[in-house]
Amino acid sequence: MLTRKMKDSGMKWIGELPEDWEIRKLKYTLEERNEKNNPIVTDNILSLSVERGVFPYAEKTGGGNKSKSDLTAYKVAHPNDIVINSMNILAGAVGLSRYTGIVSPVYYTLYTTSEEINITYYYYLFRTREFQRSLLGLGNGIMMRESSTGKLNTIRMRIPMDKLAGLFLPLPPRRVQDLIVKSLAKDIKVVNKLINQTEQSIKELKNYKQSLITESVTKGIDPNVEMKDSDVEWIGDIPKHWNFIKGKYIFEKLQRPIRCDEIITAFRDGQVMQRSKRRTEGFTTSLKEIGYQGVEKGDLVIHSMDAFAGAIGISQDNGKCSPVCIVLNSSNSNIYNPYFSYLMKVYAYLGYIESMAKGIRVRSTDFKYHTFANTFLLIPELQEQQQIVQYLDDKVSTIDRLIEDKIKVIEELENYKKSLIYEYVTGKKEV
């Protein structure tokens, strides 16, 4: 078997590449399309995301920027155009359009009419981490974030087109480009299938966890207990000796003084802990901590804006939190906070919290204390509360470990896919 001859590309991010491959500047390989939508060519507005690539704006869900009312302010993109977000290419915002549509003026659209070029090859090339990281020195930073160490990090950078145009890129023979595109399509399909199967397995585990918690806190864990109708349709039958009591009769809303300066965050997965122990990125920092309150380990904390999504739990730490959190405790010796943490999560799962709260922003509600105070809580005897929590803690921790293992599998598959693309498009993996 003959070994291919390799040569130094002269670029650190590429390293060696096959001897018969060329190196050519982007501007001599691809052309920028600067077609204005004036007069109007189409009203099909396109979006671009790291996860989905290019897709119709009409399919967009959740938040994000609103589309412009003036359609002439957009640029036209055509099928087989590479679409790049100049502000977010470092994060991987690049896609290959399958549509005729219009895109934001901050996007670049690249195309080719050359028989020498398979544009999909360059789409794959632009998706590599190595290419994206090679752009770090080219960007104009427009937004800064201070890290926990005090270092300022640029998180959004505009890459000017003239700098992109001057980049040297590999140019394999057209036959090789075609083979790379074909091989990647096949291999990525296999990897994506494994990722989808693993994601489905995670979804099933999460559903099982929710049903297990729901069954345990509303029916108990004694299969032989006598039941009665709760008169609450979404709860159904409950153990005969259980009762309902309004929240205000068993829990006090606290306004503790701040004794620890660490910020406590209630996450949507039910963890309540010092933010620094989990992650420090992606949070909004208050310039003035008006209304902040102390939290102590063992307090029941409900995030009033995210409670509908499960941001309810027992604080694992001492610290402080914003007034958006409801901090609760009970002086009743027959009340075991962890049981009510599980119970309120069930109220979230079953849609009660969302139905009782007034929505004020996308994907959020406002579950105020007075609503909690007048919510009927299902109360077993203290010993049963403790037994249910012990049972669920054991079962849930096992399920969570399985989920974590599967998340790691997905991360490994995603990394493998990225390395596969890089190996192919730089000629290190032979086709």
From TrEMBL:
GO MF annotation list: DNA binding
UniProt-listed Pfam families: Methylase_S (PF01420)
GO biological process: DNA restriction-modification system
Domain Type I restriction modification DNA specificity: 296-411
Keywords associated with the record: DNA-binding, Restriction system
Protein family: Belongs to the type-I restriction system S methylase family.
Subunit structure: The methyltransferase is composed of M and S polypeptides.
Designated name of the protein: Type I restriction enzyme specificity protein
Organism: Staphylococcus arlettae
